[in-house]
Amino acid sequence: MANKNVKDTAFLILALAVIIGSRLMPGMWGLSQEAMGVLGVFFGSLILWITISIDWPSMITLMALGFLPTFGFSKTFAGAFGNTTVAFLLFTFMLVYPLSKTNFVRRCTISFITNRIARKGPWYFVCFLFAAVTFMGLFVSPSVLFVAFMPFLEDIFQVLEVKKGGKTGNMMMLGTAICISLSSGMTAIGHVWPTMAIGYYTSATGHDVNQFQYMAMGIPTGIILIVLLILAFKVIYRPDDIQNIRPEKALGLRGTVPAADLKENIILGVVFFTVFLWIGPSLIKGVMPELYATINSWSTAMPPLLGCIILFITKVDGERLLNFKEATTKGILWGSILMTGAATWLGSCLTNADIGISDWLTVTLSPLTASLPIMGMVVFFMTWAVLETNFSSNIVTTTVVSAVALSVLTALPAGSVSVGTVVCMVGFAAGVSSMTPAGQSTVNTVAIGSGWTTAKSMFIWGGFVAVMAILVLSFVTYPLGSLIIQ
Protein backbone atom coordinates (compact mmCIF):
# COMPACT_ATOMS: atom_id res chain seq x y z
CA MET A 1 0.00 0.00 0.00
CA ALA A 2 2.84 2.38 0.87
CA ASN A 3 4.57 1.71 -2.45
CA LYS A 4 1.33 2.27 -4.34
CA ASN A 5 0.78 5.59 -2.56
CA VAL A 6 4.28 6.73 -3.50
CA LYS A 7 3.78 5.69 -7.14
CA ASP A 8 0.37 7.41 -7.32
CA THR A 9 1.84 10.60 -5.90
CA ALA A 10 4.77 10.50 -8.32
CA PHE A 11 2.52 9.99 -11.36
CA LEU A 12 0.15 12.70 -10.13
CA ILE A 13 3.00 15.19 -9.88
CA LEU A 14 4.26 14.15 -13.33
CA ALA A 15 0.80 14.58 -14.88
CA LEU A 16 0.31 17.99 -13.27
CA ALA A 17 3.75 19.05 -14.46
CA VAL A 18 2.82 18.08 -18.03
CA ILE A 19 -0.55 19.88 -17.86
CA ILE A 20 0.75 23.06 -16.23
CA GLY A 21 4.02 23.09 -18.14
CA SER A 22 2.26 22.91 -21.50
CA ARG A 23 0.32 26.09 -20.66
CA LEU A 24 3.57 27.94 -20.01
CA MET A 25 5.19 26.85 -23.29
CA PRO A 26 5.11 29.14 -26.33
CA GLY A 27 3.50 27.95 -29.54
CA MET A 28 5.74 25.71 -31.65
CA TRP A 29 5.66 23.27 -34.58
CA GLY A 30 2.98 25.42 -36.16
CA LEU A 31 0.70 25.08 -33.13
CA SER A 32 -0.62 27.96 -31.03
CA GLN A 33 0.14 28.28 -27.33
CA GLU A 34 -3.39 27.18 -26.49
CA ALA A 35 -3.07 24.15 -28.79
CA MET A 36 0.02 23.19 -26.80
CA GLY A 37 -2.12 23.49 -23.68
CA VAL A 38 -4.74 21.12 -25.08
CA LEU A 39 -2.03 18.60 -25.95
CA GLY A 40 -0.66 18.95 -22.44
CA VAL A 41 -4.07 18.19 -20.97
CA PHE A 42 -4.37 15.20 -23.30
CA PHE A 43 -1.02 13.63 -22.35
CA GLY A 44 -1.40 14.53 -18.67
CA SER A 45 -4.84 12.92 -18.61
CA LEU A 46 -3.45 9.76 -20.24
CA ILE A 47 -0.84 9.51 -17.49
CA LEU A 48 -3.54 9.86 -14.81
CA TRP A 49 -5.97 7.42 -16.42
CA ILE A 50 -3.35 4.74 -17.09
CA THR A 51 -1.44 4.92 -13.81
CA ILE A 52 -3.96 6.04 -11.16
CA SER A 53 -7.63 5.71 -12.11
CA ILE A 54 -10.21 6.67 -14.72
CA ASP A 55 -12.70 8.22 -12.26
CA TRP A 56 -11.64 11.14 -10.07
CA PRO A 57 -8.57 12.11 -12.17
CA SER A 58 -11.06 13.03 -14.90
CA MET A 59 -11.97 16.00 -12.72
CA ILE A 60 -8.43 17.31 -13.16
CA THR A 61 -8.99 17.05 -16.92
CA LEU A 62 -12.14 19.18 -16.62
CA MET A 63 -10.36 21.70 -14.40
CA ALA A 64 -7.47 22.04 -16.85
CA LEU A 65 -9.76 22.44 -19.87
CA GLY A 66 -11.81 25.04 -18.02
CA PHE A 67 -8.77 27.28 -17.67
CA LEU A 68 -8.23 27.34 -21.45
CA PRO A 69 -9.61 30.69 -22.74
CA THR A 70 -11.22 29.23 -25.85
CA PHE A 71 -13.41 26.89 -23.82
CA GLY A 72 -13.74 28.26 -20.28
CA PHE A 73 -15.62 26.51 -17.52
CA SER A 74 -19.13 27.18 -18.82
CA LYS A 75 -18.42 25.55 -22.20
CA THR A 76 -16.46 22.76 -20.55
CA PHE A 77 -19.28 21.87 -18.16
CA ALA A 78 -21.88 22.20 -20.90
CA GLY A 79 -19.86 19.88 -23.13
CA ALA A 80 -19.34 17.30 -20.38
CA PHE A 81 -22.65 17.43 -18.48
CA GLY A 82 -25.10 19.30 -20.67
CA ASN A 83 -25.13 22.45 -18.53
CA THR A 84 -23.39 24.12 -15.60
CA THR A 85 -26.30 23.53 -13.19
CA VAL A 86 -25.96 19.74 -13.38
CA ALA A 87 -22.19 19.97 -12.90
CA PHE A 88 -22.63 22.31 -9.92
CA LEU A 89 -25.01 19.94 -8.13
CA LEU A 90 -22.94 16.87 -8.96
CA PHE A 91 -19.71 18.30 -7.52
CA THR A 92 -21.44 19.91 -4.53
CA PHE A 93 -23.14 16.65 -3.52
CA MET A 94 -19.76 14.91 -3.70
CA LEU A 95 -18.03 17.69 -1.76
CA VAL A 96 -20.38 17.68 1.25
CA TYR A 97 -20.74 13.88 1.43
CA PRO A 98 -17.58 13.27 3.51
CA LEU A 99 -18.81 15.97 5.91
CA SER A 100 -21.92 13.88 6.62
CA LYS A 101 -19.68 10.98 7.68
CA THR A 102 -17.99 13.02 10.39
CA ASN A 103 -19.34 14.10 13.78
CA PHE A 104 -19.82 17.64 12.44
CA VAL A 105 -23.63 17.61 12.79
CA ARG A 106 -23.52 16.52 16.42
CA ARG A 107 -20.57 18.76 17.31
CA CYS A 108 -22.11 21.81 15.64
CA THR A 109 -25.45 21.27 17.37
CA ILE A 110 -23.84 20.76 20.77
CA SER A 111 -21.88 24.00 20.41
CA PHE A 112 -25.14 25.84 19.69
CA ILE A 113 -27.36 24.35 22.41
CA THR A 114 -24.84 24.27 25.27
CA ASN A 115 -23.51 27.81 25.11
CA ARG A 116 -24.11 30.18 28.01
CA ILE A 117 -27.04 32.00 26.41
CA ALA A 118 -28.82 28.80 25.37
CA ARG A 119 -28.70 27.65 29.01
CA LYS A 120 -30.59 30.72 30.25
CA GLY A 121 -33.98 29.13 29.72
CA PRO A 122 -36.16 26.79 27.64
CA TRP A 123 -36.98 29.31 24.92
CA TYR A 124 -33.34 30.29 24.55
CA PHE A 125 -32.56 26.60 24.11
CA VAL A 126 -35.25 26.18 21.45
CA CYS A 127 -33.96 29.23 19.55
CA PHE A 128 -30.42 27.87 19.44
CA LEU A 129 -31.60 24.39 18.46
CA PHE A 130 -33.43 25.85 15.45
CA ALA A 131 -30.43 28.09 14.71
CA ALA A 132 -28.14 25.04 14.64
CA VAL A 133 -30.14 23.10 12.05
CA THR A 134 -30.69 26.24 9.99
CA PHE A 135 -26.96 26.98 9.91
CA MET A 136 -26.08 23.46 8.81
CA GLY A 137 -28.92 23.50 6.29
CA LEU A 138 -27.33 26.43 4.48
CA PHE A 139 -24.90 24.05 2.79
CA VAL A 140 -26.20 20.52 3.42
CA SER A 141 -29.06 18.92 1.49
CA PRO A 142 -32.29 18.95 3.58
CA SER A 143 -32.89 15.21 3.17
CA VAL A 144 -29.33 14.31 4.16
CA LEU A 145 -29.30 16.72 7.10
CA PHE A 146 -32.65 15.63 8.53
CA VAL A 147 -31.86 11.93 8.32
CA ALA A 148 -28.44 12.54 9.92
CA PHE A 149 -29.90 14.82 12.60
CA MET A 150 -32.87 12.68 13.65
CA PRO A 151 -30.94 10.18 15.85
CA PHE A 152 -29.21 13.05 17.64
CA LEU A 153 -32.53 14.87 18.14
CA GLU A 154 -33.83 11.71 19.80
CA ASP A 155 -30.79 11.83 22.10
CA ILE A 156 -31.59 15.45 22.96
CA PHE A 157 -35.19 14.52 23.81
CA GLN A 158 -33.95 11.71 26.06
CA VAL A 159 -31.41 13.86 27.90
CA LEU A 160 -33.92 16.67 28.44
CA GLU A 161 -36.65 14.16 29.37
CA VAL A 162 -39.03 15.47 26.71
CA LYS A 163 -42.07 13.20 26.46
CA LYS A 164 -43.83 12.01 23.31
CA GLY A 165 -47.33 13.37 23.02
CA GLY A 166 -46.35 16.61 24.74
CA LYS A 167 -46.58 20.01 23.09
CA THR A 168 -42.87 20.76 23.53
CA GLY A 169 -41.71 17.64 21.71
CA ASN A 170 -44.22 18.33 18.95
CA MET A 171 -42.99 21.93 18.64
CA MET A 172 -39.31 20.98 18.56
CA MET A 173 -39.85 18.34 15.87
CA LEU A 174 -42.04 20.71 13.83
CA GLY A 175 -39.57 23.55 14.15
CA THR A 176 -36.62 21.37 13.20
CA ALA A 177 -38.34 20.08 10.05
CA ILE A 178 -39.58 23.53 9.02
CA CYS A 179 -36.20 25.22 9.64
CA ILE A 180 -34.36 22.60 7.58
CA SER A 181 -36.83 23.03 4.72
CA LEU A 182 -36.53 26.82 4.85
CA SER A 183 -32.73 26.62 4.90
CA SER A 184 -32.85 24.82 1.54
CA GLY A 185 -34.06 28.06 -0.01
CA MET A 186 -31.75 30.42 1.88
CA THR A 187 -28.68 29.56 -0.21
CA ALA A 188 -28.02 27.87 -3.54
CA ILE A 189 -25.16 25.82 -2.06
CA GLY A 190 -26.02 22.21 -2.83
CA HIS A 191 -29.74 23.02 -3.02
CA VAL A 192 -31.53 22.06 -6.19
CA TRP A 193 -34.42 24.50 -6.51
CA PRO A 194 -32.53 27.80 -5.98
CA THR A 195 -29.82 26.56 -8.35
CA MET A 196 -32.42 25.72 -10.98
CA ALA A 197 -34.16 29.08 -10.63
CA ILE A 198 -30.87 30.93 -11.13
CA GLY A 199 -30.09 28.70 -14.10
CA TYR A 200 -33.45 29.44 -15.75
CA TYR A 201 -32.96 33.16 -15.31
CA THR A 202 -29.44 33.04 -16.74
CA SER A 203 -30.51 30.89 -19.67
CA ALA A 204 -33.46 33.14 -20.55
CA THR A 205 -31.81 36.54 -20.09
CA GLY A 206 -28.05 36.01 -20.30
CA HIS A 207 -27.65 37.66 -16.89
CA ASP A 208 -26.25 35.81 -13.90
CA VAL A 209 -27.01 35.84 -10.18
CA ASN A 210 -24.02 34.92 -8.03
CA GLN A 211 -24.06 33.12 -4.71
CA PHE A 212 -23.51 36.29 -2.68
CA GLN A 213 -26.45 38.07 -4.33
CA TYR A 214 -28.77 35.13 -3.72
CA MET A 215 -27.69 34.70 -0.09
CA ALA A 216 -28.04 38.45 0.58
CA MET A 217 -31.70 37.99 -0.36
CA GLY A 218 -32.38 34.44 0.84
CA ILE A 219 -30.77 34.40 4.29
CA PRO A 220 -32.60 37.49 5.67
CA THR A 221 -35.88 36.07 4.33
CA GLY A 222 -35.31 32.76 6.08
CA ILE A 223 -34.31 34.42 9.36
CA ILE A 224 -37.46 36.57 9.37
CA LEU A 225 -39.68 33.53 8.79
CA ILE A 226 -37.96 31.50 11.52
CA VAL A 227 -38.29 34.38 14.00
CA LEU A 228 -42.01 34.67 13.14
CA LEU A 229 -42.37 30.90 13.64
CA ILE A 230 -40.75 31.00 17.08
CA LEU A 231 -42.90 33.98 18.12
CA ALA A 232 -46.01 32.12 16.97
CA PHE A 233 -44.96 29.06 18.94
CA LYS A 234 -44.50 31.17 22.06
CA VAL A 235 -47.54 33.45 21.76
CA ILE A 236 -50.10 31.22 19.99
CA TYR A 237 -49.06 27.57 20.57
CA ARG A 238 -47.78 28.12 24.13
CA PRO A 239 -46.55 24.61 25.05
CA ASP A 240 -47.57 24.01 28.65
CA ASP A 241 -44.72 21.59 29.36
CA ILE A 242 -41.81 23.69 28.11
CA GLN A 243 -40.86 24.79 31.62
CA ASN A 244 -39.97 21.16 32.37
CA ILE A 245 -36.93 21.52 30.09
CA ARG A 246 -33.65 22.03 31.92
CA PRO A 247 -31.20 23.26 29.24
CA GLU A 248 -28.19 22.68 31.51
CA LYS A 249 -28.78 18.93 31.18
CA ALA A 250 -27.65 19.20 27.56
CA LEU A 251 -24.12 19.74 28.87
CA GLY A 252 -23.98 15.98 29.31
CA LEU A 253 -23.94 15.63 25.53
CA ARG A 254 -20.53 17.29 25.27
CA GLY A 255 -18.70 14.16 26.27
CA THR A 256 -20.48 12.00 23.71
CA VAL A 257 -18.64 13.41 20.70
CA PRO A 258 -14.87 13.07 20.25
CA ALA A 259 -12.79 16.08 19.32
CA ALA A 260 -12.45 16.87 15.63
CA ASP A 261 -9.53 14.99 14.08
CA LEU A 262 -7.24 16.03 11.23
CA LYS A 263 -9.52 14.44 8.65
CA GLU A 264 -12.58 16.40 9.75
CA ASN A 265 -10.64 19.67 10.00
CA ILE A 266 -9.33 19.30 6.44
CA ILE A 267 -12.82 18.50 5.10
CA LEU A 268 -14.30 21.50 6.90
CA GLY A 269 -11.48 23.71 5.63
CA VAL A 270 -12.07 22.65 2.03
CA VAL A 271 -15.84 23.17 2.32
CA PHE A 272 -15.42 26.69 3.73
CA PHE A 273 -12.74 27.46 1.13
CA THR A 274 -15.28 26.49 -1.53
CA VAL A 275 -17.90 28.76 0.02
CA PHE A 276 -15.34 31.59 0.09
CA LEU A 277 -14.71 31.14 -3.64
CA TRP A 278 -18.45 31.49 -4.19
CA ILE A 279 -19.03 34.65 -2.18
CA GLY A 280 -15.57 36.26 -1.96
CA PRO A 281 -15.41 37.65 -5.51
CA SER A 282 -18.61 39.65 -4.98
CA LEU A 283 -16.87 41.58 -2.22
CA ILE A 284 -14.18 42.87 -4.62
CA LYS A 285 -16.47 43.64 -7.55
CA GLY A 286 -16.23 47.42 -7.10
CA VAL A 287 -12.55 47.44 -6.12
CA MET A 288 -11.08 45.01 -8.66
CA PRO A 289 -13.66 44.59 -11.43
CA GLU A 290 -11.27 42.78 -13.79
CA LEU A 291 -10.38 40.14 -11.19
CA TYR A 292 -14.07 39.80 -10.32
CA ALA A 293 -14.96 39.27 -13.98
CA THR A 294 -12.25 36.62 -14.34
CA ILE A 295 -13.29 34.65 -11.25
CA ASN A 296 -16.98 35.06 -12.05
CA SER A 297 -16.40 33.56 -15.50
CA TRP A 298 -15.30 30.31 -13.88
CA SER A 299 -18.99 29.58 -13.08
CA THR A 300 -20.42 28.30 -9.79
CA ALA A 301 -19.43 24.72 -10.59
CA MET A 302 -15.69 25.38 -10.56
CA PRO A 303 -15.24 25.89 -6.75
CA PRO A 304 -16.82 22.53 -5.77
CA LEU A 305 -14.89 20.85 -8.58
CA LEU A 306 -11.66 22.23 -7.10
CA GLY A 307 -12.78 21.20 -3.61
CA CYS A 308 -13.44 17.64 -4.76
CA ILE A 309 -10.03 17.43 -6.43
CA ILE A 310 -8.34 18.58 -3.21
CA LEU A 311 -10.20 15.93 -1.19
CA PHE A 312 -9.38 13.23 -3.75
CA ILE A 313 -5.68 14.12 -3.72
CA THR A 314 -5.33 14.55 0.06
CA LYS A 315 -4.69 11.41 2.09
CA VAL A 316 -4.88 10.84 5.84
CA ASP A 317 -3.52 7.58 7.23
CA GLY A 318 -3.03 6.34 3.68
CA GLU A 319 -6.67 6.86 2.65
CA ARG A 320 -8.08 9.55 0.39
CA LEU A 321 -10.50 11.90 2.13
CA LEU A 322 -13.01 11.37 -0.67
CA ASN A 323 -13.69 7.93 -2.10
CA PHE A 324 -15.08 8.18 -5.62
CA LYS A 325 -17.14 4.98 -5.62
CA GLU A 326 -18.65 5.64 -2.22
CA ALA A 327 -19.39 9.29 -2.97
CA THR A 328 -21.08 8.52 -6.27
CA THR A 329 -23.20 5.69 -4.88
CA LYS A 330 -24.14 7.17 -1.50
CA GLY A 331 -23.51 10.90 -1.69
CA ILE A 332 -25.08 11.97 -4.98
CA LEU A 333 -28.84 12.24 -5.25
CA TRP A 334 -28.99 10.88 -8.78
CA GLY A 335 -32.75 11.32 -9.05
CA SER A 336 -32.36 15.04 -8.41
CA ILE A 337 -29.44 15.26 -10.85
CA LEU A 338 -31.39 13.49 -13.61
CA MET A 339 -34.52 15.54 -13.04
CA THR A 340 -32.52 18.77 -12.88
CA GLY A 341 -30.96 18.05 -16.25
CA ALA A 342 -34.32 17.18 -17.78
CA ALA A 343 -36.17 20.06 -16.10
CA THR A 344 -33.50 22.61 -17.05
CA TRP A 345 -33.73 21.65 -20.70
CA LEU A 346 -37.53 21.53 -20.46
CA GLY A 347 -37.51 25.05 -19.04
CA SER A 348 -35.36 26.23 -21.94
CA CYS A 349 -37.77 24.62 -24.39
CA LEU A 350 -40.77 26.23 -22.71
CA THR A 351 -39.21 29.70 -22.96
CA ASN A 352 -37.76 29.23 -26.48
CA ALA A 353 -38.95 32.09 -28.69
CA ASP A 354 -39.21 29.86 -31.76
CA ILE A 355 -41.65 27.50 -30.03
CA GLY A 356 -44.09 30.28 -29.21
CA ILE A 357 -45.25 29.17 -25.76
CA SER A 358 -43.88 32.33 -24.16
CA ASP A 359 -45.88 34.54 -26.53
CA TRP A 360 -48.99 32.43 -25.97
CA LEU A 361 -48.64 32.67 -22.17
CA THR A 362 -48.12 36.40 -22.40
CA VAL A 363 -51.28 36.84 -24.49
CA THR A 364 -53.31 34.42 -22.36
CA LEU A 365 -52.30 35.94 -19.04
CA SER A 366 -52.30 39.54 -20.25
CA PRO A 367 -55.95 40.15 -19.17
CA LEU A 368 -54.96 39.12 -15.64
CA THR A 369 -51.57 40.79 -15.50
CA ALA A 370 -52.79 43.97 -17.18
CA SER A 371 -55.14 44.59 -14.28
CA LEU A 372 -52.48 43.87 -11.69
CA PRO A 373 -49.80 46.27 -10.48
CA ILE A 374 -46.24 44.98 -10.30
CA MET A 375 -46.64 44.05 -6.65
CA GLY A 376 -49.84 42.22 -7.49
CA MET A 377 -47.98 40.05 -10.00
CA VAL A 378 -45.28 39.36 -7.42
CA VAL A 379 -47.92 38.21 -4.90
CA PHE A 380 -49.56 36.10 -7.63
CA PHE A 381 -46.36 34.21 -8.48
CA MET A 382 -45.33 33.77 -4.84
CA THR A 383 -48.77 32.41 -3.90
CA TRP A 384 -48.68 30.02 -6.85
CA ALA A 385 -45.18 28.77 -6.02
CA VAL A 386 -45.80 28.28 -2.29
CA LEU A 387 -49.12 26.49 -2.79
CA GLU A 388 -47.85 24.21 -5.54
CA THR A 389 -44.65 23.21 -3.76
CA ASN A 390 -46.67 21.92 -0.79
CA PHE A 391 -48.60 19.51 -2.97
CA SER A 392 -46.07 18.56 -5.64
CA SER A 393 -42.34 18.29 -6.28
CA ASN A 394 -40.12 21.25 -5.38
CA ILE A 395 -38.33 20.84 -8.70
CA VAL A 396 -41.55 20.76 -10.72
CA THR A 397 -42.74 23.88 -8.92
CA THR A 398 -39.51 25.71 -9.71
CA THR A 399 -39.64 24.65 -13.36
CA VAL A 400 -43.26 25.56 -14.03
CA VAL A 401 -43.54 28.80 -12.07
CA SER A 402 -40.12 30.08 -13.22
CA ALA A 403 -40.97 29.40 -16.86
CA VAL A 404 -44.28 31.27 -16.68
CA ALA A 405 -42.81 34.13 -14.64
CA LEU A 406 -39.99 34.57 -17.16
CA SER A 407 -42.44 34.54 -20.07
CA VAL A 408 -44.77 37.10 -18.53
CA LEU A 409 -42.35 39.42 -16.75
CA THR A 410 -39.79 39.71 -19.56
CA ALA A 411 -42.59 40.99 -21.81
CA LEU A 412 -43.11 43.99 -19.52
CA PRO A 413 -41.33 47.31 -20.20
CA ALA A 414 -37.63 47.12 -19.27
CA GLY A 415 -36.94 48.24 -15.73
CA SER A 416 -40.55 47.96 -14.55
CA VAL A 417 -39.90 44.74 -12.63
CA SER A 418 -36.82 42.94 -11.31
CA VAL A 419 -37.24 39.66 -13.16
CA GLY A 420 -34.14 38.11 -11.57
CA THR A 421 -35.44 38.82 -8.08
CA VAL A 422 -38.83 37.24 -8.76
CA VAL A 423 -37.33 34.10 -10.31
CA CYS A 424 -34.87 33.72 -7.41
CA MET A 425 -37.79 34.15 -5.01
CA VAL A 426 -39.50 31.24 -6.77
CA GLY A 427 -36.40 29.18 -5.92
CA PHE A 428 -36.80 30.16 -2.26
CA ALA A 429 -40.57 29.59 -2.28
CA ALA A 430 -40.05 26.02 -3.51
CA GLY A 431 -38.43 25.27 -0.14
CA VAL A 432 -41.46 26.50 1.84
CA SER A 433 -42.91 23.02 1.72
CA SER A 434 -43.80 21.73 5.19
CA MET A 435 -47.60 21.37 4.95
CA THR A 436 -47.92 17.88 3.47
CA PRO A 437 -45.73 14.78 3.02
CA ALA A 438 -45.62 15.58 -0.71
CA GLY A 439 -43.87 18.89 -0.06
CA GLN A 440 -40.56 17.59 1.30
CA SER A 441 -41.10 13.87 1.08
CA THR A 442 -38.10 12.76 3.15
CA VAL A 443 -38.19 15.48 5.79
CA ASN A 444 -41.95 15.63 6.30
CA THR A 445 -42.63 11.89 6.20
CA VAL A 446 -39.77 11.06 8.58
CA ALA A 447 -40.92 13.79 11.00
CA ILE A 448 -44.50 12.52 10.99
CA GLY A 449 -43.40 8.88 11.20
CA SER A 450 -41.18 9.61 14.22
CA GLY A 451 -44.22 9.87 16.48
CA TRP A 452 -43.16 13.27 17.82
CA THR A 453 -45.53 15.21 15.57
CA THR A 454 -48.59 14.52 13.43
CA ALA A 455 -49.76 15.17 9.88
CA LYS A 456 -52.35 17.61 11.28
CA SER A 457 -49.72 19.64 13.12
CA MET A 458 -47.48 19.71 10.04
CA PHE A 459 -50.38 20.95 7.93
CA ILE A 460 -51.36 23.69 10.38
CA TRP A 461 -47.90 25.03 11.12
CA GLY A 462 -46.60 24.42 7.63
CA GLY A 463 -49.62 26.41 6.44
CA PHE A 464 -48.79 29.22 8.86
CA VAL A 465 -45.25 29.43 7.52
CA ALA A 466 -46.59 29.29 3.94
CA VAL A 467 -48.85 32.31 4.51
CA MET A 468 -46.06 34.21 6.24
CA ALA A 469 -43.68 33.32 3.40
CA ILE A 470 -46.01 34.73 0.75
CA LEU A 471 -46.25 38.01 2.65
CA VAL A 472 -42.55 38.27 3.52
CA LEU A 473 -41.39 37.31 0.01
CA SER A 474 -43.75 39.78 -1.62
CA PHE A 475 -43.35 42.80 0.63
CA VAL A 476 -39.88 42.40 2.16
CA THR A 477 -37.78 40.14 -0.05
CA TYR A 478 -38.78 41.67 -3.38
CA PRO A 479 -37.83 45.26 -2.43
CA LEU A 480 -34.59 43.97 -0.86
CA GLY A 481 -33.74 41.73 -3.80
CA SER A 482 -34.44 44.50 -6.31
CA LEU A 483 -31.59 46.48 -4.76
CA ILE A 484 -29.18 43.54 -5.00
CA ILE A 485 -30.12 41.70 -8.19
CA GLN A 486 -30.12 43.73 -11.38
From TrEMBL:
Keywords: Membrane, Transmembrane, Transmembrane helix
Any single biological process term in GO: carboxylic acid transmembrane transport
Membrane topology label: Multi-pass membrane protein
Keyword Transmembrane set for record: yes
Residues spanning the membrane: 6-25, 37-56, 76-97, 123-152, 172-193, 214-237, 266-284, 291-313, 333-353, 365-387, 393-412, 419-438, 458-480
A GO cellular-component term linked to this record: plasma membrane
UniProt-annotated location(s): Membrane
GO MF terms held by the record: organic anion transmembrane transporter activity
Family membership: Belongs to the SLC13A/DASS transporter (TC 2.A.47) family. NADC subfamily.
Stated name of the protein: Sodium-dependent dicarboxylate transporter SdcS
